[in-house]
Write a structure and sequence with these properties.
Its main location: cytoplasm. By secondary structure, the chain is mostly helical. It is built from 17 helices and 5 strands. Strands 1-2-3-4-5 form a 5-stranded parallel β-sheet, with no helix packed on it. α13 links the parallel β1 (265-267) and β2.
Protein backbone atom coordinates (compact mmCIF):
# COMPACT_ATOMS: atom_id res chain seq x y z
CA UNK A 1 0.00 0.00 0.00
CA UNK A 2 1.40 3.36 -0.96
CA UNK A 3 1.96 6.22 1.46
CA UNK A 4 -0.84 8.23 -0.11
CA UNK A 5 -3.39 5.49 0.52
CA UNK A 6 -2.09 5.08 4.07
CA UNK A 7 -2.79 8.75 4.66
CA UNK A 8 -6.36 8.27 3.48
CA UNK A 9 -6.99 5.41 5.92
CA UNK A 10 -6.86 7.71 8.94
CA UNK A 11 -10.02 9.49 7.73
CA UNK A 12 -12.15 6.33 7.99
CA UNK A 13 -12.64 6.48 11.77
CA UNK A 14 -13.02 10.25 12.02
CA UNK A 15 -15.85 11.61 14.18
CA UNK A 16 -17.87 13.76 11.81
CA UNK A 17 -20.35 14.93 14.45
CA UNK A 18 -17.56 16.34 16.59
CA UNK A 19 -16.17 18.26 13.63
CA UNK A 20 -19.59 19.71 12.78
CA UNK A 21 -20.16 20.87 16.35
CA UNK A 22 -16.93 22.86 16.31
CA UNK A 23 -17.75 24.66 13.04
CA UNK A 24 -18.87 28.28 13.19
CA UNK A 25 -21.91 29.54 11.24
CA UNK A 26 -19.58 31.10 8.63
CA UNK A 27 -17.75 27.82 8.17
CA UNK A 28 -21.04 25.95 7.84
CA UNK A 29 -22.15 28.40 5.18
CA UNK A 30 -18.88 27.88 3.31
CA UNK A 31 -19.39 24.11 3.55
CA UNK A 32 -22.86 24.54 2.11
CA UNK A 33 -21.46 26.49 -0.85
CA UNK A 34 -18.88 23.83 -1.57
CA UNK A 35 -21.48 21.07 -1.40
CA UNK A 36 -23.69 22.99 -3.83
CA UNK A 37 -20.81 23.22 -6.31
CA UNK A 38 -19.96 19.52 -5.96
CA UNK A 39 -23.48 18.09 -6.08
CA UNK A 40 -26.69 20.13 -6.08
CA UNK A 41 -28.62 17.26 -4.45
CA UNK A 42 -26.26 17.05 -1.48
CA UNK A 43 -26.30 20.84 -1.17
CA UNK A 44 -30.07 20.90 -1.20
CA UNK A 45 -30.12 18.24 1.54
CA UNK A 46 -27.66 20.14 3.70
CA UNK A 47 -29.28 23.52 3.10
CA UNK A 48 -32.01 22.92 5.65
CA UNK A 49 -29.49 21.99 8.39
CA UNK A 50 -27.60 25.29 8.26
CA UNK A 51 -26.65 26.33 11.75
CA UNK A 52 -27.72 22.95 13.23
CA UNK A 53 -24.67 20.61 13.24
CA UNK A 54 -26.54 17.98 15.17
CA UNK A 55 -28.91 17.51 12.25
CA UNK A 56 -26.14 15.75 10.31
CA UNK A 57 -26.85 12.28 11.58
CA UNK A 58 -25.04 9.11 10.76
CA UNK A 59 -27.21 8.65 7.68
CA UNK A 60 -26.45 12.07 6.18
CA UNK A 61 -22.85 12.82 7.00
CA UNK A 62 -21.46 9.65 5.37
CA UNK A 63 -23.21 10.81 2.21
CA UNK A 64 -21.42 14.16 2.49
CA UNK A 65 -18.14 12.36 3.11
CA UNK A 66 -18.62 10.16 0.06
CA UNK A 67 -19.41 13.25 -2.02
CA UNK A 68 -16.06 14.74 -1.07
CA UNK A 69 -14.37 11.45 -1.87
CA UNK A 70 -16.15 11.16 -5.20
CA UNK A 71 -14.59 14.49 -6.23
CA UNK A 72 -11.15 13.52 -4.88
CA UNK A 73 -8.38 12.15 -7.16
CA UNK A 74 -9.06 8.98 -9.11
CA UNK A 75 -6.78 6.78 -7.05
CA UNK A 76 -8.64 7.72 -3.85
CA UNK A 77 -11.99 6.92 -5.45
CA UNK A 78 -10.75 3.51 -6.52
CA UNK A 79 -9.44 2.71 -3.04
CA UNK A 80 -12.35 3.90 -0.93
CA UNK A 81 -14.90 1.11 -0.51
CA UNK A 82 -18.61 1.63 -0.61
CA UNK A 83 -19.46 0.29 2.80
CA UNK A 84 -20.30 3.76 4.09
CA UNK A 85 -23.07 4.34 1.57
CA UNK A 86 -24.52 0.93 2.36
CA UNK A 87 -24.17 1.30 6.15
CA UNK A 88 -26.92 1.76 8.69
CA UNK A 89 -29.02 4.84 8.16
CA UNK A 90 -27.82 5.24 4.59
CA UNK A 91 -29.96 6.26 1.71
CA UNK A 92 -32.44 3.50 0.77
CA UNK A 93 -31.74 1.55 -2.36
CA UNK A 94 -28.00 2.28 -2.36
CA UNK A 95 -25.59 -0.62 -2.35
CA UNK A 96 -21.95 -0.80 -1.50
CA UNK A 97 -19.16 0.02 -3.88
CA UNK A 98 -18.54 3.62 -4.90
CA UNK A 99 -18.16 3.26 -8.64
CA UNK A 100 -18.96 6.71 -10.02
CA UNK A 101 -22.59 6.66 -8.92
CA UNK A 102 -24.94 8.66 -11.16
CA UNK A 103 -26.34 10.32 -8.04
CA UNK A 104 -22.97 11.99 -7.43
CA UNK A 105 -22.68 13.35 -10.96
CA UNK A 106 -24.41 16.70 -11.63
CA UNK A 107 -27.33 16.34 -14.02
CA UNK A 108 -27.01 19.85 -15.46
CA UNK A 109 -23.59 19.65 -17.05
CA UNK A 110 -25.01 20.63 -20.45
CA UNK A 111 -26.30 23.97 -19.15
CA UNK A 112 -24.26 27.14 -19.67
CA UNK A 113 -21.85 28.08 -16.93
CA UNK A 114 -23.99 31.04 -15.89
CA UNK A 115 -26.99 28.81 -15.20
CA UNK A 116 -24.96 26.17 -13.34
CA UNK A 117 -23.67 28.61 -10.73
CA UNK A 118 -25.40 28.93 -7.39
CA UNK A 119 -27.18 32.17 -6.68
CA UNK A 120 -24.92 33.92 -4.13
CA UNK A 121 -26.94 37.09 -3.70
CA UNK A 122 -28.33 37.74 -0.22
CA UNK A 123 -30.66 40.62 -1.07
CA UNK A 124 -34.22 40.16 -2.12
CA UNK A 125 -35.12 41.23 -5.68
CA UNK A 126 -36.45 44.77 -6.07
CA UNK A 127 -38.15 44.23 -9.44
CA UNK A 128 -37.73 42.87 -12.96
CA UNK A 129 -34.51 43.38 -14.91
CA UNK A 130 -34.30 46.72 -16.75
CA UNK A 131 -31.24 46.51 -18.98
CA UNK A 132 -31.27 50.14 -20.09
CA UNK A 133 -31.59 51.42 -16.54
CA UNK A 134 -28.79 49.09 -15.43
CA UNK A 135 -26.46 50.37 -18.18
CA UNK A 136 -27.24 53.97 -17.29
CA UNK A 137 -26.54 53.25 -13.63
CA UNK A 138 -23.19 51.63 -14.47
CA UNK A 139 -22.20 54.56 -16.68
CA UNK A 140 -23.16 57.03 -13.97
CA UNK A 141 -21.17 55.08 -11.39
CA UNK A 142 -18.15 55.04 -13.68
CA UNK A 143 -18.35 58.81 -14.15
CA UNK A 144 -18.66 59.49 -10.44
CA UNK A 145 -15.65 57.38 -9.46
CA UNK A 146 -12.71 59.63 -8.71
CA UNK A 147 -9.72 59.05 -10.93
CA UNK A 148 -6.48 57.90 -9.39
CA UNK A 149 -3.91 60.61 -8.90
CA UNK A 150 -0.68 60.29 -10.83
CA UNK A 151 2.38 59.44 -8.81
CA UNK A 152 4.26 62.16 -10.66
CA UNK A 153 1.92 64.98 -11.72
CA UNK A 154 2.25 66.31 -15.25
CA UNK A 155 3.40 69.93 -15.29
CA UNK A 156 4.15 70.40 -19.01
CA UNK A 157 7.80 71.16 -18.37
CA UNK A 158 10.16 70.25 -21.21
CA UNK A 159 13.48 68.84 -20.10
CA UNK A 160 16.61 68.78 -22.14
CA UNK A 161 17.67 70.91 -25.07
CA UNK A 162 15.92 70.91 -28.45
CA UNK A 163 17.88 69.35 -31.30
CA UNK A 164 19.24 71.84 -33.80
CA UNK A 165 20.63 70.38 -36.98
CA UNK A 166 24.11 71.74 -37.63
CA UNK A 167 24.67 73.63 -40.80
CA UNK A 168 26.72 71.77 -43.37
CA UNK A 169 29.48 73.75 -44.95
CA UNK A 170 29.87 73.14 -48.65
CA UNK A 171 33.47 72.34 -49.58
CA UNK A 172 35.20 74.65 -51.96
CA UNK A 173 35.41 72.01 -54.71
CA UNK A 174 31.62 71.51 -54.60
CA UNK A 175 30.73 75.15 -54.77
CA UNK A 176 29.41 76.18 -58.17
CA UNK A 177 29.57 79.74 -59.34
CA UNK A 178 27.00 80.68 -61.92
CA UNK A 179 26.69 83.74 -64.03
CA UNK A 180 24.96 86.68 -62.40
CA UNK A 181 21.98 86.37 -64.75
CA UNK A 182 21.44 82.69 -63.85
CA UNK A 183 21.89 83.41 -60.15
CA UNK A 184 19.25 86.10 -60.32
CA UNK A 185 16.89 83.87 -62.36
CA UNK A 186 17.16 81.00 -59.89
CA UNK A 187 16.75 83.30 -56.91
CA UNK A 188 13.45 84.65 -58.24
CA UNK A 189 12.16 81.34 -59.74
CA UNK A 190 8.82 79.99 -58.50
CA UNK A 191 8.23 76.46 -57.21
CA UNK A 192 6.62 75.42 -60.50
CA UNK A 193 9.64 76.65 -62.48
CA UNK A 194 12.06 74.90 -60.10
CA UNK A 195 10.08 71.69 -60.54
CA UNK A 196 10.38 71.87 -64.32
CA UNK A 197 14.09 72.66 -64.14
CA UNK A 198 14.68 69.67 -61.82
CA UNK A 199 12.81 67.42 -64.25
CA UNK A 200 14.84 68.66 -67.22
CA UNK A 201 18.06 68.05 -65.28
CA UNK A 202 16.94 64.47 -64.54
CA UNK A 203 16.36 64.88 -60.79
CA UNK A 204 13.39 62.50 -60.79
CA UNK A 205 13.84 61.61 -57.11
CA UNK A 206 12.67 65.07 -56.07
CA UNK A 207 9.18 64.70 -57.54
CA UNK A 208 6.51 62.24 -58.45
CA UNK A 209 6.46 60.32 -61.71
CA UNK A 210 3.53 62.35 -62.99
CA UNK A 211 5.34 65.65 -62.38
CA UNK A 212 8.51 64.31 -63.99
CA UNK A 213 6.89 63.05 -67.21
CA UNK A 214 4.56 66.04 -67.48
CA UNK A 215 7.57 68.38 -67.36
CA UNK A 216 9.43 66.40 -70.03
CA UNK A 217 6.53 65.88 -72.43
CA UNK A 218 4.91 69.28 -72.18
CA UNK A 219 6.33 72.48 -73.62
CA UNK A 220 4.67 74.58 -70.94
CA UNK A 221 4.97 74.75 -67.16
CA UNK A 222 2.24 72.38 -66.04
CA UNK A 223 3.44 71.48 -62.51
CA UNK A 224 1.98 74.48 -60.76
CA UNK A 225 2.01 72.81 -57.32
CA UNK A 226 5.79 72.72 -56.94
CA UNK A 227 8.21 70.03 -55.84
CA UNK A 228 6.89 69.70 -52.27
CA UNK A 229 3.27 69.29 -53.36
CA UNK A 230 1.09 66.41 -52.27
CA UNK A 231 0.72 63.70 -54.89
CA UNK A 232 -2.85 63.62 -56.18
CA UNK A 233 -4.54 61.07 -58.42
CA UNK A 234 -5.32 61.83 -62.01
CA UNK A 235 -8.85 62.79 -62.87
CA UNK A 236 -9.99 60.31 -65.45
CA UNK A 237 -12.85 61.04 -67.74
CA UNK A 238 -15.77 58.67 -67.21
CA UNK A 239 -16.17 56.24 -70.06
CA UNK A 240 -19.81 55.65 -70.97
CA UNK A 241 -21.10 52.12 -71.26
CA UNK A 242 -21.41 50.58 -74.65
CA UNK A 243 -24.85 50.88 -76.20
CA UNK A 244 -26.94 47.71 -76.22
CA UNK A 245 -26.77 45.39 -79.17
CA UNK A 246 -29.41 46.59 -81.66
CA UNK A 247 -29.64 43.24 -83.45
CA UNK A 248 -33.18 42.00 -84.01
CA UNK A 249 -33.10 38.28 -83.32
CA UNK A 250 -36.32 37.49 -85.20
CA UNK A 251 -35.10 39.21 -88.36
CA UNK A 252 -31.71 37.50 -88.12
CA UNK A 253 -33.42 34.12 -87.74
CA UNK A 254 -35.56 34.76 -90.82
CA UNK A 255 -32.54 35.88 -92.86
CA UNK A 256 -30.52 32.81 -91.86
CA UNK A 257 -33.39 30.48 -92.72
CA UNK A 258 -33.89 32.15 -96.12
CA UNK A 259 -30.12 32.04 -96.82
CA UNK A 260 -29.91 35.80 -97.45
CA UNK A 261 -26.89 36.76 -99.57
CA UNK A 262 -26.38 40.09 -97.78
CA UNK A 263 -26.12 38.50 -94.33
CA UNK A 264 -22.48 37.51 -93.75
CA UNK A 265 -22.17 38.14 -90.01
CA UNK A 266 -24.40 37.12 -87.12
CA UNK A 267 -23.49 39.13 -84.01
CA UNK A 268 -25.54 38.42 -80.89
CA UNK A 269 -22.96 39.62 -78.36
CA UNK A 270 -24.14 40.80 -74.92
CA UNK A 271 -27.79 39.89 -75.51
CA UNK A 272 -28.48 37.92 -72.35
CA UNK A 273 -32.22 37.35 -72.62
CA UNK A 274 -32.28 35.14 -75.71
CA UNK A 275 -34.36 32.00 -75.04
CA UNK A 276 -32.62 28.69 -75.48
CA UNK A 277 -35.12 27.43 -78.11
CA UNK A 278 -34.44 30.52 -80.26
CA UNK A 279 -30.68 29.92 -80.17
CA UNK A 280 -31.24 26.26 -80.95
CA UNK A 281 -33.38 27.16 -83.97
CA UNK A 282 -30.70 29.59 -85.12
CA UNK A 283 -28.05 26.87 -84.98
CA UNK A 284 -30.36 24.54 -86.88
CA UNK A 285 -30.83 27.18 -89.59
CA UNK A 286 -27.07 27.69 -89.80
CA UNK A 287 -26.58 24.09 -90.90
CA UNK A 288 -27.85 24.85 -94.42
CA UNK A 289 -26.72 28.48 -94.69
CA UNK A 290 -23.97 29.15 -97.22
CA UNK A 291 -23.39 32.92 -96.85
CA UNK A 292 -22.75 33.59 -93.15
CA UNK A 293 -18.99 33.81 -92.50
CA UNK A 294 -18.94 34.93 -88.85
CA UNK A 295 -21.08 33.64 -85.97
CA UNK A 296 -20.62 35.29 -82.52
CA UNK A 297 -22.41 34.39 -79.27
CA UNK A 298 -20.28 36.29 -76.71
CA UNK A 299 -21.85 36.86 -73.25
CA UNK A 300 -25.24 35.41 -74.12
CA UNK A 301 -25.41 33.18 -71.00
CA UNK A 302 -25.26 30.10 -73.21
CA UNK A 303 -24.70 26.70 -71.65
CA UNK A 304 -24.09 23.14 -72.72
CA UNK A 305 -27.36 22.79 -74.71
CA UNK A 306 -26.27 25.66 -76.97
CA UNK A 307 -22.76 24.20 -77.20
CA UNK A 308 -24.19 20.90 -78.40
CA UNK A 309 -26.32 22.73 -80.99
CA UNK A 310 -23.23 24.61 -82.19
CA UNK A 311 -21.35 21.31 -82.47
CA UNK A 312 -24.12 19.81 -84.63
CA UNK A 313 -24.03 22.94 -86.78
CA UNK A 314 -20.26 22.68 -87.33
CA UNK A 315 -20.57 19.12 -88.57
CA UNK A 316 -22.84 20.17 -91.48
CA UNK A 317 -21.97 23.81 -92.22
CA UNK A 318 -19.32 24.33 -94.90
CA UNK A 319 -19.20 28.14 -95.16
CA UNK A 320 -18.58 29.39 -91.60
CA UNK A 321 -15.07 30.79 -91.03
CA UNK A 322 -15.24 32.44 -87.58
CA UNK A 323 -16.92 31.16 -84.39
CA UNK A 324 -16.84 33.05 -81.07
CA UNK A 325 -18.53 31.60 -77.96
CA UNK A 326 -16.47 33.36 -75.25
CA UNK A 327 -17.74 34.53 -71.83
CA UNK A 328 -20.53 31.98 -71.42
CA UNK A 329 -21.52 29.19 -69.04
CA UNK A 330 -20.23 26.29 -71.11
CA UNK A 331 -18.69 23.44 -69.11
CA UNK A 332 -15.98 21.00 -70.11
CA UNK A 333 -18.57 18.65 -71.63
CA UNK A 334 -19.87 21.32 -73.98
CA UNK A 335 -16.39 22.45 -74.98
CA UNK A 336 -15.37 18.87 -75.69
CA UNK A 337 -18.37 18.46 -78.02
CA UNK A 338 -17.44 21.64 -79.92
CA UNK A 339 -13.80 20.56 -80.27
CA UNK A 340 -14.76 17.15 -81.62
CA UNK A 341 -17.02 18.82 -84.18
CA UNK A 342 -14.23 21.18 -85.29
CA UNK A 343 -12.25 18.18 -86.50
CA UNK A 344 -14.98 17.45 -89.04
CA UNK A 345 -15.07 21.06 -90.31
CA UNK A 346 -12.50 22.11 -92.89
CA UNK A 347 -13.56 25.76 -93.45
CA UNK A 348 -13.32 27.17 -89.93
CA UNK A 349 -10.27 29.46 -89.57
CA UNK A 350 -10.97 31.21 -86.24
CA UNK A 351 -12.25 29.74 -82.97
CA UNK A 352 -12.60 31.56 -79.61
CA UNK A 353 -13.75 29.70 -76.46
CA UNK A 354 -12.04 31.59 -73.61
CA UNK A 355 -13.46 33.04 -70.35
CA UNK A 356 -16.06 30.43 -69.47
CA UNK A 357 -17.72 30.26 -66.07
CA UNK A 358 -15.45 27.46 -64.88
CA UNK A 359 -12.04 26.14 -65.86
CA UNK A 360 -12.57 23.27 -68.35
CA UNK A 361 -9.71 21.11 -67.03
CA UNK A 362 -6.52 19.48 -68.23
CA UNK A 363 -8.27 16.99 -70.53
CA UNK A 364 -10.00 19.77 -72.47
CA UNK A 365 -6.78 21.74 -72.85
CA UNK A 366 -5.01 18.64 -74.18
CA UNK A 367 -7.89 18.15 -76.62
CA UNK A 368 -7.53 21.78 -77.77
CA UNK A 369 -3.87 21.24 -78.54
CA UNK A 370 -4.67 18.02 -80.41
CA UNK A 371 -7.38 19.74 -82.50
CA UNK A 372 -5.01 22.55 -83.46
CA UNK A 373 -2.42 19.99 -84.54
CA UNK A 374 -4.93 18.02 -86.64
CA UNK A 375 -6.78 21.01 -88.17
CA UNK A 376 -4.36 23.08 -90.29
CA UNK A 377 -7.19 25.38 -91.37
CA UNK A 378 -7.40 27.10 -87.93
CA UNK A 379 -5.01 30.07 -87.86
CA UNK A 380 -6.54 32.05 -84.95
CA UNK A 381 -7.47 30.46 -81.63
CA UNK A 382 -8.70 32.33 -78.55
CA UNK A 383 -7.98 30.62 -75.23
CA UNK A 384 -5.62 31.21 -72.28
CA UNK A 385 -3.92 27.93 -71.42
CA UNK A 386 -3.10 27.24 -67.77
CA UNK A 387 -0.83 24.23 -68.38
CA UNK A 388 2.59 24.53 -69.95
CA UNK A 389 2.37 21.37 -72.06
CA UNK A 390 -0.81 22.18 -74.01
CA UNK A 391 0.29 25.81 -74.33
CA UNK A 392 3.56 24.87 -76.01
CA UNK A 393 1.86 22.37 -78.34
CA UNK A 394 -0.83 24.91 -79.29
CA UNK A 395 1.75 27.63 -80.00
CA UNK A 396 3.75 25.29 -82.21
CA UNK A 397 0.62 24.15 -84.06
CA UNK A 398 -0.54 27.75 -84.66
CA UNK A 399 2.87 28.70 -86.02
CA UNK A 400 2.77 25.76 -88.41
CA UNK A 401 -0.81 26.52 -89.54
CA UNK A 402 -0.02 30.18 -90.26
CA UNK A 403 3.07 29.18 -92.21
CA UNK A 404 1.00 26.77 -94.31
CA UNK A 405 -1.54 29.50 -94.99
CA UNK A 406 1.23 31.90 -96.06
CA UNK A 407 2.65 29.33 -98.46
CA UNK A 408 -0.79 28.72 -99.97
CA UNK A 409 -1.26 32.43 -100.62
CA UNK A 410 2.12 32.66 -102.37
CA UNK A 411 1.15 29.89 -104.76
Amino acid sequence: MSSYLKELEKYRDIDEDEILRTLSPEELEQLDCELQEMDPEVGALAQGTRGRPQAFGKGVWPWVTETYRAWSPKRAREKVSGDVLGGPGGAPGQSGGLTCSPKLIPKNMLLPAGLRQRDQTKKSPTGPLDREALLQYLEQQALEVKERDDLVPFTGEKKGKPYIQPKREIPAEEQITLEPELEEALAHATDAEMCDIAAILGMYTLMSNKQYYDALCSGEICNTEGISSVVQPDKYKPVPDEPPNPTNIEEILKSVRSNDKELEEVNLNNIQDIPIPVLTELCEAMKTNTHVRSFSLVATRSGDPIANAVADMLRENRSLQSLNIESNFISSTGLMAVLKAVRENATLTELRVDNQRQWPGDAVEMEMATVLEQCPSIVRFGYHFTQQGPRARAAQAMTRNNELRRQQKKR
